[in-house]
Structures are given as C-alpha cells and as structure tokens.
Amino acid sequence: MASWNPWHGCHKLSEGCRNCYVYRIDERHGKDSSVITRTRDFDLPVRRKRDKSYKIKPGTLVYTCFSSDFFVEDADLWRPEAWRMMRERNDLHFFMITKRIDRFLNCIPEDWGDGYENVTICCTMENQDRTDFRLPIYRDAPIRHKLIICEPLLSDIDFYNCLGTWVEQVIVGGESGNRARICNYDWVLNIRKQCIHGKVPFSFKQTGARLLKDGYLYHIKRRYQHSQARKAKIDTE
Hints:
Layout (H helix, E strand, L loop, with lengths): L1 E3 L2 E2 L12 H8 L8 E2 L22 E4 L14 H10 L4 E6 L20 E6 L3 H13 L4 E6 L18 E5 L9 E2 H14 L3 E5 L3 E4 L2 E4 L5 H7 L6
Parallel strand pairs: 1-4, 4-5, 5-6, 6-7, 7-8, 8-10, 9-11
Antiparallel strand pairs: 2-3, 11-12
C-alpha cells in the first residue's frame, strides 16, 4: 500500500465537506486548505531507484489524492500528466474518492474508453440529496471499478433499487472529529439491507464519533471507531 497526493487542498462542495479532515489537519499547521498546490510528490509513481527500478513496487495499491479531490477544477492543468503516469504504471492500482463525479467526463484522457483497468474511482454519497444528484451520473460513467462511499453518513439513503453488479462495494461510516454530526445506526442497517437486495458487498467502516443506536447516543473515541464498527459484524460479501 502506498499514498500519492499529486496536489493538496480543496474547496468545500457539499455537506460532507463541512468538517473535512484535511481542513482540520491543515488548520493545526496554519495552512489554508482552500489553496490548491501541486506537491513535491507529484511524480511519485514514476520515481526510480539507483538501479532504475521503480520506487513503488509493482502490484502496490496506491491511495490517490486523499488530501484533495482528483477532479478539483484547480488541478485541470496537472491532471493529464497524472493520467499519463497511471498509464505508465499499469502494474499499480490507483484508488481515489471524489465528490465531483459531475466533472468526470470533462477530465478523462482521450484513450480512457471504458476506463483504465488499474484505476478505481469511488464516489461519495453522504446524504439523500447528494445521492439523488451523483448516483445516476456515477452509474452511467465509463469506469471499470466503482465503489460508493457513504462517509460521513449524514442521513438515511434510498438508492431506489439502483444497486447492482455495476458497483463493487458500498462502504459506510460515521463522521469523526470534535464537531462530528450524528450517524444513526438505523441508516447503516437500511443501506446494508439495500446492498443485500442488490447483491452488492457492504462494509461498515467506522462508527464515527457520535453514533445513535437503539435510542442511545454513543460518544466514541477516535481510536475505537473502526474496531467498534468491526464488532458489529454486519459486513457482507
């Protein structure tokens, strides 16, 4: 596993961005997250060692652009070169998450076709409003590997029986941080039910800091949020 952040910073776009972890981290260091900058690691996937072999080993899963959004407007000039590096490193698998799926068709390279086999593009759907907007765009987009990310989960969500073989997994999680909004466990179970109906793998990634379950509001420390979600044992394959 490796991380590649070709650029850093983003613009808050929807309710899921309100308590963005990138903004929280940058704030501690006096940085302005709304300023998008190309990073020193821009060419990381194609960097080589002295023996001319790549620094990132073949077969590595590369978490891509997790300190920004790959499709943010400010990166339009840099993105073609990033795609070129992904083509060159077709022995790696690039994994990214976006809230800007509506920009996707304007940002892909000419040879994209039905998508690069070594690229997974996930789409965030944090509430019903963003699901209604992003789901049809994402479903019809030419992407080989698709995952829906309901994190932070901010409302109950109805996928209108649209889940199916086109999506490889749905991942759900609550919101972290001191200002975290409530995640209702009933919302989690409802999404799980829809995944089972659509025969789509489901994963409860984390509880978030404030989980409402059976009428009781649990305040869960950051270090326990993933483990408590696993203890629920509601993931499906």
